[in-house]
Structure formats: C-alpha cells, structure tokens
Amino acid sequence: MFLRHKFLSIALAIFASVSVVLAEEPAHDHEHKESKFNIGEMIMHHISDAHEWEFAHGLAIPLPVIIYDNGLKVFSSSNFYHSPEADHEHHIYPYKEAGYVLEHEHIYKIGADGKADKNSHVLDFSITKNVASMLLSAVLLLVIFLSVAKGFNKNKGKAPSGIQSFVEPIIIFIRDEVVKPSIGHGYEKYLPYMLTLFFFIWINNLLGLLPGGANLTGNIAITLVLAIITFLIVHFNANKHYFLHLVKPTGVPAALLPLLVPVEIVGVFMKPISLMIRLFANITAGHIIILSLLGLIFMAKSLGSATTGWAVSPLIVFFSLFMNVIELLVAFLQAFIFTLLSSMYIGSAIEDNHDADHGH
Amino acid sequence: MEKPPSPNQYAKYAGMGFQMLTTIGLGTYLGVKLDEWQQNKIPGWTLVLSLLSIAISMYNFIRQLPKA
After folding, report:
1. Other CB atoms closer than 10 Å to residue A123's CB: what's the count?
2. pLDDT tens across A273-284, in order?
3. How confident is the model at residue A31 (pLDDT cuts 50, 70, 90)?
C-alpha cells in the first residue's frame, strides 16, 4: 500500500514537472510553431476572465459588454468575438462600428492608426464570465437557503427533510466547531457573515470545478474583496484592548516601541493579505494542475501522433480524476480555512482582558 | 487537560505558516521592485527588506503562539 502511494506521488511529481517544462517551451518559439499546441496559453485562457462564457470550442454564450466612455454603452460581446477582422492568433477583436477593440480581454478605443489606443481609458463594467458565474452562484445560494429556511420553519422540532438535511449539519458544524470556539462570547452577531462567507466560497469553488465553469475564487479581485470585508469587520468591531495593544504591546520596554509598533502594524495588514493570497493561490493552482494534466494529451499528440495522444490518455484521465477528487476536498477545506481564520481574527480583536494572557 | 488538538488547531498553525510566507514574499518582492526602479548595482533594498520581513514574520509568528 505504501509503495503504491509512493509510486503515485512520484509519478504525479514527474508528470507535473514535465508539463511545466513543456508549457515553457512553446512560448520561446512563438512565431515559428504557431500551429503547435500551446499549453501555457490554453491554461491561461481557462483560468482567466473573459467577455464570453465558453463551454467548448465554438460553443460559447456571448455576454453583455457594459462600458462607460463619455456615456454608458451596452452591446453584446459577440460583436467582438464574431468580428470579421478578428485576429484569433493575437487575441485582437475589433468592433469597428462602435470604435472599440478587445485585446487580450481588455477593451480599448480604436486609435487613428486603426490599432488599439493603449492610452484610452475605457471603464469596463461588463458582465464577464466571472460576474455571470457569481450571479449564478448567488441565485443558487438563494434557492438552496430559502428552501432550507422554509424547511427549518416547517419541521421545527422534527427531523429535517430534503436539502435541509444536507445543509443543516454543515451550518451547525460551522457554528459549533468554527465560529463559536474562535469568537467566543457574542459570536451570534458574526454568524450570518461567517456562514455566508463559507457557503459563498464553497459553492463557487465547486462551480469552478465543473467543466466550463469560471475560475471565480481563483480570481484575486474576488478574494481581495472577501479579505477586505473581513478586515473591515475586524477593525470596526475591535475593542480598545486590540488597538492599545498595537501601539503599546504589553511587557515591551519603551526603547523597543519604535521597532515593534511598525512590526505589529505590518502584522495587521498581513492577515487579510494572506487570506487573499491563500484562497487565490490554492484554487488557481488546482485548476492549473488539472489543465496541465489534460494538456499532456494534446502535447503528446502534437509531439508524436494521434496514436500517442490516445495511448497516454487512459493514464492521464486517471490522474486528472484523482486530482479532481482532491480538488473537491480542497474546495471545502479552503472555504473552511477562510471562515476559520476570519472568525479567529475577529475573536482576537473583540476578546476582553487582552492583557491577561500576555503576562510573563 | 491533555486533549488531542482539534482540526481547528491544525488549520490555525497552517494559517500562521502561510502568513509568514506572505510577509516574507511581499517584503522581498517590494525590495526587488525598489532595486529595479532605482537600478541599483548592489541589491540593497532586496537584502534589507527580505531580512527585515523574515524578522517581522518570525516576531508575528511567535506572538501568535499560545502561552503555555
């Protein structure tokens, strides 16, 4: 059993490193071998945001483009992607009639030379793939939790029914194992935020694992906003002990204060920043691993022949299935850790007698 | 008194380690960028800020440990 696990991990490591090497290679001779499969580009395309929702090649839902540039302008993103002058190779999609061009998913004005005017500032409020996915997750969360709330009211004192019996234990788990021990007295006030945070991250992690799903929680803007909300909640609720401790840590000689106060303040900002990077990095890394595994099939095909591609497929499908199952766990774990650390930061900011447990 | 640590404890320490990583990473990144910006021959900012961020991260790590 041990041997088999060892083999698995070694094989995974080798495959991962090979795919990284292969991913690096095509970038160098970009111009010469454009027809060759570019795994790096494929991966970036899948993990980044887009103005259309692509499920497979040729199967995409155009999304609304909303821009503010001397007035609000709304049109469909198919005007970009189905433009007659579209340059798929360099990701340049001009929309001549409106005077805008979509270049690497950034919208610019078309300049006098007919190319993108990089100095133009177009405010882009488009419903992108990530925004659409977030709206979808909000609808899903509402549907699930309204039905749970209805079930809770209906089955008061009785056994839960339907989806309620799946969700209620998780709610109880978050309340009793995560929020209550970390925040302590007065935890009820923060429970709605913590539960929302947990289920929002979890459901978006899971939606991201679906084929064609958007990489929402692997987008640093999303995790940034979540971390900022936590940061604000911590600092609007913090008591005087918390702030006093920042400017005058207990048991520190006055001579050391100029040294330690900046250190304490750096620590305050590092907490939300590490929250932000952890979620972003974990989810993006998971996506990249699965995509590079799948990309190996196409690498094999482009280096050898179609037969080589078919030959390696069974092994790679097995590995990507394995990684997908791991990612199911990671999806839960990252939502759990984000919630746990958020409640721990709140707990440390509102706890009474902060000085008592720092005696020497 | 000796209770096996709950999963929360493991997550807490994992979080502290990651916080250390972020502090060092951001400090060093800032140093590299400053040296690039000033076009220094000797990467002074990188040296100072990376060592400083290691010190800060260690201080903050130890601060978060429970008092036994």
Report:
1. 10
2. 999 999 999 999
3. very low
Residue A86 in any domain: the answer is no
- Sequence spans of domains, chain B: 25-68
Tally of structural domains, chain A: 1
Chain B residue with the nearest C-alpha to that of A182: B8
Contact list, A274 vs chain B (CB under 8 Å): 15, 18-19, 21-23
Contact A197, A339 (CB under 8 A): yes
Q: How far is CA A239 from the centre of its chain?
A: 32
Contact criterion met (CB < 8 Å) for A267 and B63: yes
ipTM score of the complex?
A: 0.81
Cα radius of gyration rounded to whole Å, chain B: 17
pLDDT classification of A48: cutoffs 50, 70, 90: confident
Averaged pLDDT for residues A341-353 = 87
3-state SS, residue A154: helix
Is the CB of residue A344 less than 8 Å away from at least one CB of chain B?
yes
Specify which residues A123 forms β-bridges with.
Answer: A68
Distance of CA A43 to the CA centre of its chain: 15
Q: Do B15 and A341 touch (CB under 8 A)?
A: yes
Cβ separation B8–A270 shorter than 8 A: no
Q: Do B56 and A267 touch (CB under 8 A)?
A: yes
Please check whether residue A63 lies inside any domain of the structure. Answer: no
Is A44 part of any domain? no
For A333, the domain range is 129-358
Q: Is the pLDDT of residue A40 over 80?
A: yes
- The pLDDT tens digits of the residues spanning A138-162 come to 999 999 999 999 988 888 878 887 8
Asked if residue A198 is part of any domain, the answer here is yes
